Amino acid sequence: MPRYSRKVPKRSVSDETLVKIGQRVRWLREALGHTQADWARRLRISVMALNKWEAGTRLPNINALITICDASGASMDYLVRGIVTAEMAPLLVEALHRQHAADLVFRALPRRARR
After folding, report:
1. Residue-range domain boundaries for the chain
2. Residue 2 CB: number of other CB atoms within 10 A?
3. What's the predicted TM-score (pTM) here?
4. Closest residue by Cα to residue 56 from 90, 110, 15, 94
5. Torsions phi, psi of 72, nearest 5?
6. Which long-range CB contacts under 8 A does 8-16 form with residues at least 24 apart?
7. Cα–Cα distance, 12 to 82 (Å, whole number)
8. How far apart are CA 48 and CA 115, in angstroms?
9. Tens digit of pLDDT for each residue in 75-101?
């Protein structure tokens, strides 16, 4: 009987995707005005886990992504694909547009930017 290797890749996403998701988690936290410690406490995770997500060395699991969306008013589209949608909180959309307009896709523009 063949012996199976346990050397299975732990990650199925590219390094670039990891970094982009981490960057969006950081931008979201900064747009909401939280420190890493405050945000980690609110999400009920360790500061070290949040730090690894933001640095792009670890990927949040699906439950963590859902918790981030629920706690912040962001959408999964924003976290995973960088698309700001109409379902997101208007003040959050404004803050993200003000700080990172060139790096995100906006399907919902802040009221002041619509003119």
Report:
1. 15-109
2. 4
3. 0.82
4. 15
5. -115, -20
6. 11/59, 13/59, 15/56
7. 19
8. 42
9. 999 999 999 998 899 999 999 999 998
Distance of alpha carbon 18 from alpha carbon 52, whole angstroms: 10
Buried b (16+ CB within 10 A) or exposed e, 54-85: bebebbbeeebbebbbeebbbbebbbebbbbb
* DSSP calls for 71-114: HHT--HHHHHH-EE-TTS-HHHHHHHHHHHGGGSEESS--GGGG
Please state the length of the chain. 115
Residue in this structure with the two tokens 């399907």, named with its chain if needed: 107
| pLDDT given at position 6 | 63
Has domain 15-109 been given CATH number 1.10.260.40? Answer: yes
